[in-house]
Amino acid sequence: MTCDGAITFWIFLFFPLIFTQIPSTVGASLDDLHIGGIFPIAGKGGWQGGQACMPAAKLALDDVNKEKNLLPGYRLILHSNDSECEPGLGASVMYNLLYNKPQKLMLLAGCSTVCTTVAEAAKMWNLIVLCYGASSPALSDRSRFPTLFRTHPSATVHNPTRIKLMKKFGWSRVAILQQAEEVFISTVEDLENRCMEAGIEIVTRQSFLSDPTDAVRNLRRQDARIIVGLFYVVAARRVLCEMYKQQLYGRAYVWFFIGWYEDNWYEVNLENEDISCTVEQMRMAAEGHLTTEALMWNQNNQTTISGMTADGFRLRLNQALKEEGFDISNDRYPEGYQEAPLAYDAVWSVALAFNRSMERLRHRNKTLKEFTYNDKDIADEIYAAMNSTQFLGVSGVVAFSSQGDRIALTQIEQMINGRYEKLGYYDTQLDNLTWLNSERWIGGKVPQDRTIVRRVLRTVSLPLFVCMCTISCCGIVVALALIIFNIWNKHRRVIQSSHPVCNTIMLIGVIICLTSVILLGIDGRFVSPYEYPKVCQARAWLLSTGFTLAYGAMFSKVWRVHRFTTKAKRDPKKKVEPWKLYTMVSGLLSVDLVLLLAWQIFDPLQRILETFPLEDPTSTSDDIKIRPELEHCESEKNSMWLGLVYGYKGLILVFGLFLAYETRSIKVKQINDSRYVGMSIYNVVVLCLITAPVGMVIASQQDASFAFVALAVIFCCFLSMLLIFVPKVIEVIRHPKDKAESKYNPDSGISKEDEERYQKLVTENEELQRLISQKEEKIRLLRQRLVEREAQMKTADTNGCGGPPTTGGINNGTHPPAVTTTGASLGVYTSATSSHLPPAASLAITQAAIAVAAMAGVKHPPLITASTNDITNTDITTPLLLEPLQRQPSCNSISSSISPTIAMTVLPTSRCKRDSVLQPLIQPEGTSATSDFDSAICLGGGGGGYSQLTTTTTTRSRAASQSSAFEFSDNYQ
């Protein structure tokens, strides 16, 4: 081989190698742009979306670095680590990325809690943070996170969609269940504000840290039906299991969950997370729930900036996940699968922002390689480029708001038969809801936002009301017939003696009471709530006045019977005056009117509703509860007014019962039905005392209360009419003419004359018995004095002053002898012409004669006779002359000259005076004012009767001033 050939050989040998190294040399000359990535992958709590987002980001890096027109001369390098969705660990990963070379130009982060920590600290290094999986509304605060952008829409983007759905389905009452994380707390605050603006009530807001058991139970206690759940997927599985245990699922409940969970999130990791529910139970509880999520996949299948469609990206992502070991073929998707397009587009957003920044920095003779953590100018250029970035990615149009939030549509899905079905889309910017009408509800109808409570008014049973009204109407007809009967036969003795006007008043009261029974049964079935207070007032007025008229008429009768019997001894001829009966009824009625007027004016009765516990309907399977209500007539101070009315009428009832008992066996001609009236009062009192308290106890039972009160009123009315009028009707029917009524009516068996005679005899008998007892006592005293006088006379005889008496009469023929005395008799005569002296007057005169005789010296007169003459109408004083026995004068004390005549004068009341009648007005012949014996009998009384009989005998001595007097008095009525 020649030299040239050798040279040619080596040239051809090394030429390919030289050209092979040229691209390598060119590639090695590319500048690397380094970014940091923080992915939650292996954690046990929060969102572990890095499992799918990190493979998507790697795919994006490959596509970006292959794009020749993007980042010319540069290569994008991603340095990443796992944060496990823990803020502390995420901060540690960030510091490692920042303080370990190479220099990082931007940070990618996921999980809201980690993004919050990283973005709040990154501003100190002038670093832009782009979050691919952070939905916390708190991240929208530019003052707190000035360098933050995110391809994941804010969680608040769900709230307008939720409000839109609530209005669409007519839900105005919702509950909120949240995990105690900042992302969910800020989301709930935004939701509450939007609900308040939309007029939607938030019935309760429950939160929990890790165990949702108590919070879910509280939702059931609050009867929550539409529930918005805000929590990470791990907590979501626990909530779903507790939902099943508390039966908060099915046709009566609607749950809103976050839409970025995997499609099979409720079936995986149950054993690892110690979920006590089975897969089947979780499926049952999850059926029918709604999800709202930002649109994370391009729905139009257009070619994106990467040259792929969304379906093409899905195929590449599934293949990458399979290489990572995930069972995608059996729909076992890793967490973060829904957010994977966001991570892919986030890398493209970084590349586009760097590409625009390079162009701007070139004009300033700067490059991205010159960026340091203290270089704010380059950081501002990157910020401005990121803020203006806009492209069509696999997740849709990527653009950022002034707060750095992703502007995106919201997708609405529903779990139907274990799969998520799209229901529609909502554009928050345009307030446009695109609805597909593919929703399905368990039970075939839209669930209600609450248990429908139907207010059902409890009313009196219609058959019972009709029955009581019929009986009352019959009673009213009977009462009207009895009024006609009472007026038609008012001339009959049996009616006249029972005071027909009082009976008519009683029947009017019965009619009013029976009318009130009808009003007691009128309720909301017949009248409106506005008219019901008028019914209440009418009830009070009719029942009170009707009772007063009916019972007052009977009470006045029994009162007059009692008064008549107690005054009969002093006035046997006194009659019952009808006007007094009517006055008593009027007085009772006046008290009623005053009380009722005061009640109505100062505290009128109103319609008050009493509510009862909820009841299940009997004729429907809908989610309905029955709230029974009952109408009552009450006022603000109802107890006080009832106490006044019951107290006043209770006293009248008790007093009437006492009077009826006192007059239970009394029969008087003036009121011939007093016994029946008393029996009626017994029944009325007993029924009223039972009905009033029992009616108050059972007031909540409308049928029982109405029946009890109505029957009590009806029974009282019918019984009163029966007792008082049936005997009268029978008497009138059996005896059309007014005769022989006493045979059938025991109260009318005594004639008027017999009644008067009977009363007079009873009165005289009682008076004579009293007088006899008084006279016996006085006779005893007189006998005692006679014994003393005998002892004195014996003493006088012993001293020689006694002797046989002689009789002498000095009358001169002018008057008949006033008193004829012998040893055996003493006679008393009067000069009156009538021969009918009342027994008491005769007895008094006779006893006066005995006394005079004893003073005259007749020791033991065996016989005293008196001529009994009637001196009732004597206008002048009539002297009674007594002629005592002659006896020997006393030797020392009495003169021997003694007048033989004793004059007794009978005086009427108008002429009788105690001191002026000691001397007779007419003196016998031969006597003078200084007669030894001057006597007077005073007869006095009113109305011609003798009420007082006084006999005064005075013995005088001319020789000495000694005198003795005897007085005898008795009362006669």
Descriptive overview:
- This protein has 973 residues and is of the alpha/beta class.
- The strands form six sheets. Strands 7-6-8-9-10-13-14-15 form an eight-stranded mixed beta sheet, with helices on both faces. A five-stranded parallel beta sheet has the order 2-1-3-4-5, sandwiched between helices.
- The radius of gyration is 63 Å and the shape is rod-shaped.
Radius of gyration over alpha carbons? 63 Å
Total DSSP helices: 22
- In oligomeric terms, what are we looking at? single chain
Number of strands: 26
Poorly predicted residue ranges: 1-28, 568-573, 740-749, 801-838, 856-973
* Order of strands, widest sheet: 7-6-8-9-10-13-14-15
Q: What percent strand?
A: 15-25%
Please sum up the structure shown.
45% of the residues lie in helices and 17% in strands. The chain contains 22 helices and 26 strands. It has an eight-stranded mixed β-sheet with strand order 7-6-8-9-10-13-14-15, with helices on both faces. The chain has a five-stranded parallel β-sheet with strand order 2-1-3-4-5, with helices on both faces.
List the helices and strands and how they pair.
Blueprint lengths: L2 H26 L2 E9 L10 H17 L7 E9 L4 H13 L6 E5 L1 H11 L5 E6 L14 E3 L7 H12 L3 E7 L2 H17 L2 E8 L4 H9 L4 E5 L2 H13 L8 E5 L20 H8 L3 E5 L15 H15 L15 H23 L13 H12 L2 E4 L2 E4 L10 E7 L2 E9 L4 E4 L16 E7 L3 H27 L4 H4 L3 H21 L11 H36 L10 H25 L3 E6 L12 E11 L3 H25 L11 H24 L4 H33 L17 H47 L20 E3 L3 E4 L10 H18 L6 E4 L11 E5 L19 E6 L25 E8 L7 E9 L6 E9 L2
Parallel strand pairs: 1-2, 1-3, 3-4, 4-5, 6-7, 6-8, 8-9, 9-10, 16-18, 20-21, 23-24
Antiparallel strand pairs: 10-13, 11-12, 13-14, 14-15, 17-18, 19-20, 22-23, 24-25, 25-26
Helix pairs in contact: 2-10, 2-11, 3-4, 8-9, 11-12, 13-15, 13-20, 15-16, 15-20, 16-17, 16-18, 16-19, 18-19, 19-20, 21-22
